[in-house]
Design brief:
Layout (H helix, E strand, L loop, with lengths): L9 E5 L11 E7 L2 E12 L2 E10 H4 L13
Antiparallel strand pairs: 1-2, 2-3, 3-4
Amino acid sequence: MSNYDNTNTGILFKNDVGDNPKRPAYKGKIDVDGKEYQLAGWLREGKSGKFISLKIDDKAAAKPAAKEETDEIPF
């Protein structure tokens, strides 16, 4: 097994868009300074031709946060 450093690298895979035009055409992940993020890309067309529009999300923020339990009665 190689000891490859994945820091500051990323990858995108073709995504099944189905019948939802808002769904990204590509999804993947990217590592920035050792922190992993989710990456999404949409195929767009502009004045200069076709391009991929990207969005990056914090993987930790994408997961639902655990609900904090308290001893307080909610009413």
